[in-house]
Every structure is written in C-alpha cells, then in structure tokens.
Amino acid sequence: MADALPEAFLRAVAEGFPADFLTLEPSELEEYGRDWTRVYSPAPSAVAFPRTTDEVARLVKLCHAHRVSVVPSGGRTGLAAGAVAARGELVLSLQRMNKLGPVDLLGNTVRVQAGAVTEAVHHHCAEHGLTWPVDFASKGSSQVGGNIATNAGGVKVIRYGLTRQWVLGLQVVTAQGEVLELNGALEKNNTGVDLRQLFIGSEGTLGIITEATLKLAPLPGRQDVFLFAVPDMAGVLSLFREARRAPLILSAYEFFTDKCLERVRRHRKLRSPFDAPSSHYVLMEAESKEASEVEAWLGSLFERGLVTDGTLAQSPSQASELWALRESISESLSATGLPHKNDVSLPVAALESFCSELEAVFGARYPGWEINLFGHIGDGNLHINVMKPEDMEKAEFLAHTKAADHAMFELVSKHRGSISAEHGIGLLKKDYLSYSRSLAELELLRTLKRAMDPLNILNPGKVLDV
Amino acid sequence: MVDVPVSCRSREYPLFKEKDVKILVTAKRVEDPESKIKVKPDGSDIVREGLKYKINPFDEIGVEEGLRLVAKHGGEVVVVSIGGKEVQEQLRHALAMGAQRAVWVNHTGALDQMGVAGLLQKVVEKEKPDLVVLGKQSIDDDQNQVGQYLAEYLGWGQATFASKVESLESEQEKSKTPALQVGADGKTVQVVREVDNGLATLECQLPAVVTTDLRLNLPRYASLPGIMKAKSKPIEELTPEKLGVDVTPKVQVVKLASPPERKAGIKVPDVATLVDKLRNEAKVV
C-alpha cells in the first residue's frame, strides 16, 4: 500500500472542497489507479473528482504546496500506462467535468470540458451536421482531455490526421496551479511559440488540460465499408497502393490477420465473415465519388487477383458488424489471454521490408508463439501483440518480451520508424524512448519538464525520468 | 448399380438433386436499428429525416434459409418487397446474397397486415412457389401477423417460428440437421420450431408458408461479385391495381408514443442496503 497523504493536505481538502470531492475507497482506488494496460498494480493514495477548473487549480496548488504527486486521469483507455497511479499518487479524475458548450456554426468549433466523452462530443455535433473527427474503438469511454494529452490517433487518421490537428484552444492548469488560456478559438495566431502544442501529447507531465475548443469538420458523406480477404502482408500493401489511386476518399484502411480474427470470434462469439478463411483481412472505409467508377475498380481487384474475397456492407448495421471485427481485437486479445503490446509506425514505403525482417526477429525470439498483427496500415501504423504462452509464468513472459523488444526497436530505428505510433510512452515504453528520440532531443525534453514542473509533481515518472 | 462410397453420401450435397424447389421470400424495408428513432411531437408518425434502412433481419434470415435450401435441392429464390422505389435497395441486397430474381409491388400508401397478405397472396398465385418464407415479424412494428394471414388466405399449411437451438455457426452447428427440410419426394417440408418446453418438429404438405425465428441461421454477407451481379438481375414491377387487390387499410394507426424514459440505475454499497431498498423503496420483497 502506498504512503498515506499528509494530514494537513487532507484537512485542507476537507475544508476547501465538497464532501464528495475525494475518495479513499479501496475499490475506487483500484479502478481509478489503472488504465487498459494490465502490467502495473494500481496503488493511488486517493482519487479527486473536481467539477470546475477552479477546483482543479486550487487542488493542484495544494498538491504543489504539500508535494503530492498527481496523475491526471480521463477515460483511462490508454495502452501505455500513462494514466496508471502505481506509486501512491493522487488521481485527478476529470470525469465530472463533462460539459459540452454550444456548437459555433460560424466558426465550426465547440468548447468542451476535458472530461467529455469522445462519443458524446460526436453526438452533440452530429445534430449540426458536424463532427470532431477524432475516432477510435474506445470512443465510448475515452475523454477529450485524455485524447489531447496523448495526441490520440485512431481509425480515421488517414483522412483527418491526429488529434493535434483538431484542437484550436486549450485551457490548462500548470504545476503551480495557474490557469492558462491558450489560443482561444483562433484559427490563425502568429504570435510566437504556440504553447498549446506543448501540452498536446505531453501525457499529463507538463500541465492538466481542463477545457478545449475543438475544431469541427463537416460530417462526411455516405461511407462505404468494405472487408477484403487478401493472401498475405504484401497483398495488404499492394491493395493499399491501389486504394490510394482509386476514385475514393479513404477514411480508414485497416488490416488484421486470421489469428486476430480467431481471438475476436472466440471472445465475441462472431462467425467468420467469408466462407473460405484467409490469412490477412483489410477493412476499408471510403466515400465514393462516382459509383460506376468504384464498381469498375472493384471488379478489377478480383480480375487481377489482388483480393480473394470481399464484401460491402449493405446497411449501417452491417457496417458496424464489419467494424466490430477490427475494433474488438484489442479487447478480445486481453479478454482471452495476456498480450504484450507494441504499437510502432514506419514510413509506409518501408512497411514491407520491415515486416519481412520482423519475421526473422520473431522466428528467433518467439519460436512457436502466437503473434497477432493488426493496425492502421494506411498510416504506417502496426500493432504487434505477442500472446503469453499458456504454460509460461507472467514474470518470465515479461522478461522475455522486454529483451525481444530491444531487437524489434533496433529494426524500427533502422527503418526510421517510431516505437510508439499512437499509444504514447507512459510507463510502458519509457525505457525505449531513445530508439526514436536523439540524446539532444531527450535533454531538451528534460529541460522543459524541469522548467515547467520543477517539483516533478505532474505524472512523475511518465514518458521520461528527469 | 455402382456402390457409392459412404464418404460421398454427404447430406448437405447429395450426388443427385432430389427436386428443384421454388421459394418466395419477403424482404421488407425497415428502419436500421443503428438510426435513432424519434416519434414526431404530434404522434402521427416517426421522424423520417436522416433515417437509414435495411432488410428486416427476420426476412434476411429467410433469404439465407431459402438460399441454403436451393443450394441443396436446386431451384430458385424469388424475393418480394412492397413499397416505393426505395425498396429496390433491399431487393438488390437479397439479390446480392444470391436470390435469382425479384418482384417489386410498387405502392406508397399505408398498408395493414391484411393488405400486405392480400398482395402477397396474389404474388404467390402468380409465381406458384413450393414454399413461401417470411420473417416471423418485422422489426418496425413487431406485429407477427402477415405469415399467418397469408397461409389462411392461400389455404396452405403454415409452420411459424422456424428455429435452431444455437445461434452460432460453429462447425457443430453446420453439421446439424437444418431446421427446414424438404422431404425426398418434394411433397412435404419438416420444420423445427421453438416452443416453451423445447423444440417441436412439424411436417407440412407443400406448398406451405414458413416464418423464421431469429436463431434459424446467420445470414451471409453479400460478396462483392454478388453485389455487382445483382445490379443486372431482373426486378419485375407490379402494383396493387395490376394484382387486383384493394389495399384500403382496415386498421388505422391512431397515435404513436415513445415508451417512458428509463431512469438511471443506482449503485448500492452492500447486500443489506440492496435488501433495504427493495423492501422499503421498491416494496417488492
């Protein structure tokens, strides 16, 4: 059990905040102390639930005065343990700060509190024909503040880019408890270094995001959802080359292997989408420009043997069913076993050679182990999940994967890729950061952290050690 | 006579086709459950703007079962839908799944179950199928009446709620005897249906009307080649006038209303509090 909070701190909280502000309930500590990674044991000292920015600022000031470490916490759907509180930190949950402001139809913006659930923002804006195009499988739980703090990616990046592109203004509480209003709702503001960008992707180490002005896009037109069976990884990439040139606006190009599908089917009790099994599948979502051109293109895929089977969703329900095959993978792997997750990105052009070299690395490191590959292949983003063999102890498994990760990251580094495409660094990838960032970069990052949070109370130990 | 090795005597794919069967399947256009359904403030209808549509899932199961029967026996699946020209989308979906051709009864006004059954009766008399397969109900108004009316109008036997025990298409499931089987002589159909205390098997003389339950099968996805082929498959257009059916509704919708909104649940810390709340607040124990 973690150290208890200082008496004086607890007294100040009891005096200055509502009765339901702080909880020490063990079941709540357990729940709010962890995210979707299951590697670390949660051990926070308390969980606070502010309702306003003022409460956040006053709490952080108190934490600063009493040197209490804070883990800012959103929907806790992260996969790199960025929101894990394993060392007696105070968890600052933003879930009660979930207000949605009115949609500005002239500026195409909306102001929301950090605890707003991503999907709630989507519903709120859809009524006006607009959307915040940050979209991923965990949208029903993930929160805007967490999305921004991790610069989340997701399934529509190929069309819309990362979260960073869709944030106009931020309200941030600093480590000293000061409230910053950054950039308001301005599209253009050329007045020097854009501080807002420092906080996007900082994983809660530089400040706590409390509100944001989000940039909105018009809801896209009718999206066609396709599922293709392709023979192998090279087939996934050659189909992507074709799709890039097709008369379509791609909004998702995802792939997964038969092993992923097998786990999904086992967990979700789904049937196989095609009569004949295939080793690789591609899920493609696109807006068709001209139906007849798209048909001719689809026909040519079969003629040229680029796909062995395929379907096009005939209704929104079917589109959701097809998406479920892809979106349930992460959840199904965790529910049916213990996955060791990696989330790397590579220049798309380097994917094919990376994948074949990866096979050699895995063949030597993980002989006979189950390795599940899936991801947003259109963005060069590959999710690599190694499953713990049934008869192996967890500790042995983790030690083994740690060693193998170094070999894999060497490969990523060689191809000038990133060791974390969209999951962030958190605790999980901290030891590997130097594969993607130079020593000079790391030193600059440390300088920034020391300047902005000299007492190291904001999400200490995440991303890098000071 | 040549002795056929036992391994070749597959039940699913007999060496000799027994008899071609002609199957008429309905494909009603219904609101997709992914759309949010709202009742208009005056209660006259639901809000139609922005709604998405699909084949009634029970009908889709009927199309799938029809296709499986035809794969076994030979024959054809003809799919029928009633409505404005937009119902052609649902007909194309069924054609993309593999149905051979379609009949579209072009009618845009209100219809009640007698009107629908009356139109289907005339289509049946024209098409002369061995079997009519309908969803047991449509997911828009959940009435569960048309199949039964149709059988009565035609004077045919009916077997409602054809079902299997499991919903999963496991290997085990695939090797099980289908819930719908046409007899070797092509004169009867055997139908497994779910009843309160288990399963009952009915045998009907053909021609007959069968309605499908949710657990009969899992419909296939239309393949891309199937979707493209469907565009050139024939859709025959008929109208109530051509069929000579008076579809003036005898049943009128007076008013639609949303069910009362469910209140959010609460969490209780322990069993004692739960029992106390059940006893003193809900007064159910």
Describe the structure.
Chain A is α+β, with helices and mostly antiparallel strands and 466 residues long. Chain A has 15 helices and 18 strands. Chain A has four domains: 7-93, Uridine Diphospho-n-acetylenolpyruvylglucosamine Reductase, domain 2 (2-Layer Sandwich); 100-218, Uridine Diphospho-n-acetylenolpyruvylglucosamine Reductase, domain 3 (2-Layer Sandwich); 223-330, Alpha-Beta Plaits; 337-435, 2-Layer Sandwich (Alpha-Beta Plaits), CATH 3.30.70. Chain A is globular. Chain B has 285 residues and is an alpha/beta fold. Chain B is globular, with a radius of gyration of 22 Å. Chain A binds chain B through residues 226-227, 269, 271-275, 295, 298-299, 302, 307, 309-312, 314-320, 322, and chain B through 32-35, 52-55, 93, 96, 168-169, 218, 220-225, 227-228.
How are the SSEs placed, and which strands pair?
The complex is a heterodimer of chains A (466) and B (285).
Chain A: H1 7-16, E1 22-23, H2 26-32, E2 46-48, H3 53-66, E3 70-73, E4 90-93, E5 100-104, E6 109-113, H4 118-126, E7 130-131, H5 144-149, H6 157-160, E8 167-174, E9 179-182, H7 196-199, E10 207-215, E11 217-218, E12 223-230, H8 233-245, E13 248-257, H9 258-268, E14 280-288, H10 291-303, E15 309-312, H11 316-327, H12 329-336, E16 339-345, H13 351-365, E17 371-375, E18 381-387, H14 394-414, H15 439-452
Chain B: E1 21-26, E2 29-31, E3 53-55, H1 57-73, E4 75-83, H2 88-97, E5 101-106, H3 113-127, E6 131-135, H4 146-154, E7 157-162, H5 171-175, E8 180-182, E9 188-195, E10 198-205, E11 208-212, H6 224-230, E12 235-238, H7 240-243, H8 271-280
Parallel strand pairs in B: 1-4, 1-6, 4-5, 5-12, 6-11, 7-11
Antiparallel strand pairs in B: 2-3, 8-9, 9-10
